[in-house]
Fold:
Amino acid sequence: MGKRKVTDKDIRSIEFAIDSVFPGASGEAAKQAFHVLVERAKETGKLQNDLNSLRHEFNTLKGEYKKVSHRFSKFRKLCHAMARKEIVDADGEPILFGDILYGEDGRAWTVLGPSSKRWIFVSGMNVDGEPVKQLVMTKWLTRTPCKAEEK
Structure:
């Protein structure tokens, strides 16, 4: 059965029916009881709307939690791989947090963390001397600085 909103016309029709059936004081008591039921129904409708809104927010937060949980699990696995020295640079040496490595252009990069076994987050200075954070492939990094002209 579908929901139908009670209108003022419906309420007036029911009040008329109560007046027709119950005479005098009993009719007034029946109308009063009817209006209490109408108010409770309105409150119930508001509570139902609030409940639906909370369900929607809960489902949204649950989805976000799953995404964050998956990303954290992946990052944790990569950190363990870094600790087991499975993530290596171009020379085959293990990369750890905080290591200073050099790119093909000779710039120094500080290791911030893994993104995958082939990519890591690094921080350093760009050519203008401004600090930057970016992803760099591990095969491009070495422990010894080399000049750009040698490559």
